[in-house]
Structure formats: C-alpha cells, structure tokens
Amino acid sequence: MTQFIRGLSALLMVGAICSCSKQSSPGSTTGELVKNKAPLEDSKLIKPNILWIYVEDISPHLGSDGEPLVHTPTLDQIASQGTKFTNTIMPAPVCSAGRSAMMTGMMQTTTGVHNHHSARTPESAFFLPKEIKTLPELFKDAGYYTFNSGKDDYNFSYNREELYEGDYAKHPLYGQSGLKMDWSDRPDKSQPFFGQIQLKGGKQIFSRTFKDKIKYPIDRAQIQLPPYYPNDPVVINEWARYLESMEITDREVATIFEKLEADGELENTLVLFFADHGTRFLRHKQFLYEGGIKVPFIAYWKGQPNIVKTAQRDELISGLDISATSLAVAGIQIPDYFEGKNLFDPQYKAKEFVISARDRCDFTIDRIRSVRTERFKYIKNFYPERSGMQPSYRDEWKLTQVSRALYEQGKLNPVQAKHFEPTREPEELYDLVNDPHEINNLVSNKKYAQELIKHRNILNLWIKNSNDLGQYPEREESLKLMLGIWGDTAINPEFDKLRKQYPKLSGSQYPLKNARFEKVEQL
C-alpha cells in the first residue's frame, strides 16, 4: 500500500504516465490531450450521446476483418460506413483488470486494480484515491445520464449509484451488474447519455439456447485453426462455436441500432463497438499474445461524418484511447491522469508502443508484461518457472482436458506443445509481419538483438516511471479471499504462508462463488 500511495501521488503531481506515447519517451508525462480542443467543445450543437457496445471475449474475427466463415452483415456495414480501427490493443487480457483500466483511464497497474476479482468483499475492499474520478462520474458531472446494462466487474470498491443510474444486481464475488436498460429509461429524454451495453460475445456458447440461436451454422470441415492448436474434433468444434457466436452478436447490435433509430437517437449518438479482450481460448484470454489483447473496434456516428469519417485506420492504438476519446467528443475536459488520447483530434499522432499487463487471475498467480510496437511484440514472463498452463478455472473445460491429454500422450507438435511445457522462456520477441501467430521467438536471434534491447528498455523504463504495482506483493486480504474460495486448487507458493497462518481458511469461502445475485433498487 505504501508503494501505491507514493507512486500515485507522484503521478498526480506530474500528470499521467503514458503507456503508449510516441511523441514522448517511455514513461514520460503527457498532458497534451487536455490542451487539445475536443470536437464539440466550442460548438453550439446539443451535447452528443456516447454509447459503448462492450463485448466479451472476441478477437478481430468479423466479416470485415476478413473472416470468411462468419455472418456479420450489420457490423460489416457499420465498419464500412464508420471508422474501423485494425490495431486496437487492450490494457489487459482479462475482463476485470481491463474494465477497471477503462473506467479510470489509467493502466490497472498504476492504480493497484490489476489482480482479477479483487476488492469484492468488505474485508478486501480497495478504494481509489479521492482525486481519481471514474469515467461515468466525469460524465455525470457534465450533466450526462449514465447507465451500464450488464456487468461492471471492477477491481475497486465503489458506490454504484455514484457511477450509474438504474437498478442492479450484486454478487459477493462477481461484483455488481446493471439490470437490462438503455437510454429510453432516462426521465428527461433531452438529457444526453453515456451508456454501456454489455454483450456476451464469445461467452454466448455457454447459453443453454446457443444452438437454437444459430441461423448460419459453420461447416466444421472449413475451419482452419491457428497453428498452435491441435487439429482435434473437440477443438475444431469449439472454434466453430466461437465463430458462430459472432452471428448472435451481430443480430444484437442490429437490434440496438434499430432502437436508436426508432427513438430518434441515432443521429446524435457516437457508437463505439469493441471487446474487453480476445477469445477465451488457451493461449489467448489471460495471455498477452495477439489472441488475448487485440480486439475489434469500430466507431460510428451517423450525424457527424466529418468527425467519425468513413475510414480504416491501421495505426497502433490503446484501449485507453477509447475512454479519452469518449470524453473529448462530449466536450468534457480530460483529466491529466488519463493515459489515452483523443483519436479524432486533428493533431492525433500514432503511438510508438502500447503496454499490456497480466497479473493474478483468480487463484492463478502470474506476472506478464508486453510491449506492442508497429511490427514487434515483446513479452516478459516474470515467473518463467511456472507453466503457461498452470492450474486455472478453465481446467474444467472439455477443450482444456482434451488438449492436455494430447500433450501428455505426446501427440502435439512442438508449436502446439509449447504452451503446456512446465517452464517458459523469460523473454519473447516476435516479428508480427512475418509471424502473426507468434510462434518463432527471436530472442536468441542475433539479427534482432537491437530490437530486443529497444523493447526491453521500453518496458523497464515504463515499469520504473509508472511504478508498476505488479512488482510488489499483493495485499493479504485479496489473497485470503482467493484461498478461501478456491481452496486446494490455489497451489502457488504465495498461498503457503496463509495456509499456515489461517489453517481453517482454505476452501471455507467457496459458497461465495455459488451465491445468487441479489437485486438492488435505486430510490
């Protein structure tokens, strides 16, 4: 905690430490965004609405991304009429850490909200400093009606009524979730809104009615898996089901657009469609390869084609830019601590690099950092002695069990087996132009020695100047919660001390995991 207070105090004094700036050196301060004029700052137009269509667990596999097997006509049309960003890198490969970053406008490692499913109980409560206002609070202060239809999943403690309107449900582990609502629920229809609609995306496959929702089933014989997955019927079927989930998402987006138009809101609403992180597959979600952190992102604004132009933008951007852009478009001053930039500023400059971070995910303790540049990806594994397939929540999946069995039977080739090996390489470097699947590690290749040094230095300087809080031990109360819930599956040595100190704790809080959501009505 001491490191957090010291680091954040310094941050607030000098401005936000950028995780992705090109015009300044790694870890340097950047306050240019506040100086830049927001698109509607001096305009006499009515305040625009901002709507996030926030999707879970999908990578860029829409039709407009070149995926031939999916049926996504609505999203493809929106992409062709709006701005499609093809190189969007999220701050984290897991939902709660990434969503916490998006709400604060800062890397999750800057504020101490980097560990998955933190601050969910009174004992493990963790509050942001008073100086930090979340994105919905900033919109509220500017006179906006705010709502979030679906899960929040934030790793900090908060009073939901200070962030959003509307009734919600509360869970002792999974946090708070807004009940289904939209802009039509606001009492004053002339009030501008900042809303989020959460879609299940790749998690649609867990729905009992998933099969019934598919109108365009995908021929399994046409599936081409990434080279690091075994060509097994179970894996093929799971990948096909993931692609089929895109069709459901597309229809849901069509319904949202139809309602916006029917309610007369489409013309004055900036719609931002994007995902929290990549697919739920092994080596994707919770990891910093492209499959875990690269997401689809489309901006569409029917009434302002001069701001959101029909274009494809291939430059490197951070998910944190989405938060900053949302404020800027609304004419709201962007706080100094925000690390993103306004993507529609005429003076916007492309980034040299974007940082992403993975830390504890439930009971699985890890620390990974990545530096994504235009051509290269550098990954630092801080626990190389731990397998990429440490015990985790996904061990119960048939996909995982089949893949692990193939590994143990020696039926995987070296590329497919690598993620299952008991140890990892401390550093990884990939040429994304020639190796988009990130399978040929260039760390030992002398030809790329300078690139390795460059990317290593970027990360080291960023860790130092941002005071990356992942370098410090996690708070005891957070680890106690994980041990209490997950019991014997929590095998990392960080739990050993707690087992001795609290002999009755392990598994004692498992009922929290299966508790029911409780409805909370706002007065």
TrEMBL record:
Signal peptide: none annotated. The keyword Cell cycle does not apply. The keyword Protein biosynthesis does not apply. Residues 48-332 form the Sulfatase N-terminal domain. SUPFAM superfamilies: Alkaline phosphatase-like. Keywords: Hydrolase. GO terms for molecular function: arylsulfatase activity. InterPro entries: Alkaline_phosphatase_core_sf, Sulfatase, Sulfatase_N. Belongs to the sulfatase family. This is Probable sulfatase. It comes from Shewanella piezotolerans (strain WP3 / JCM 13877).
